[in-house]
Amino acid sequence: MRLRSLIGASLALGAGAAYYAWRESKWIDLTETVMEVPELPHGLEGLRILHISDTHFPADGESLPRFLNAVRQLRYDVVFGTGDYVESAAGWPVAVEAMRRIEPGLGIYAVIGGHERYRAIEGAGGGAAWARDLILGRRPADRDPSPFVEALRESGIHVLINQSTAVEIGGEPVRLVGIDDAYHGLDDLPAALGEQGTDSPPSFKILLSHTPDGVLHPLARRIPVALTGHTHGGQIRVPFYGAPVRHARSVSRKRPAGLMWIGETQTYVSRGFGTSGIPLRFGCRPELGVVELRRPARPL
Ligand SMILES: [Fe+2]
Questions:
Q1: Distance from the CA of 133 to the center of ligand 1, in angstroms?
Q2: Domain limits, the chain
Q3: Residue 138 to residues 75, 92, 168, 193, 259, Cα–Cα distance (Å)
Q4: How confident is the model at residue 142 (pLDDT cuts 50, 70, 90)?
Q5: What is the phi/psi pair of residue 119, to 5°?
Q6: pLDDT band at residue 33, thresholds of 50, 70 and 90?
Q7: CATH 3.10.620.30 fits domain 30-294
Q8: For site-directed labelling of 252, which of 5, 34, 168, 243 has its Cα 20 to 30 A away?
Q9: How far, in Å, from the CA of 158 to the mean position of ligand 1?
Q10: pTM of the entire structure?
Q11: Gap from CA of 173 to ligand 1 centroid (Å)
């Protein structure tokens, strides 16, 4: 009898925790982060960046209204996206719709991640393959994301795939540098920088990378600011231990997301808006946020 009670209590506790984690996965945290950048040109003082990452839109668009409602609550000047807009290629139309419906401000600049290249999970065979890849720790990125990228570009989104682009913000020249997914080894920062990799004096640059590991490249030392995602902040955090799963070596289990230095680059790692694999979060709410750039206050 005591054993049955124990099993019953354990099942109830597990079901309660799973229900809480499911609810938490939809409990959006609208974040505001100030990044103090000594090299910041005066014209960029106070620039507010809407940072969209890891939305993992499903094909049925279930999270799209929640996403658009969150965006409408934020005040921003420009939009930067750092990939994993979909869970699999089946979500491409939803992600394009989401991007089209965002007020772009000075523009939407984006890189892509790994999930843009994943096939949809279909049938029992697809589920088994997904479970196998989950255990092995990596799914094959086997879909050509070109149709998705083209659809984004036709909607006016500036997609940077190992490319950089010159923009003017507040009367200041800025170079936005976007690299492809470093998690799958597709990043090429030297190609993205081109001649800007050795310019002197260096122009002010901002790096967009899906994973924070993209900031580990030696050439990133020339870039003072980076925006990234990919880790989901661990998605599931164990109290007093941290995030067991991060899929990035540049972050730690105790600090799997947030504002941090990677080398000489001040980097923001978003917890992301969506979930991947399991639709649960624990101790790690989904995030949609603004990063505000400022020059450091002068010491008194
Ligand atoms: Fe992701």
A1: 15
A2: 30-294
A3: 36, 21, 39, 28, 26
A4: confident
A5: -70, 155
A6: very high
A7: no
A8: 34
A9: 20
A10: 0.92
A11: 31
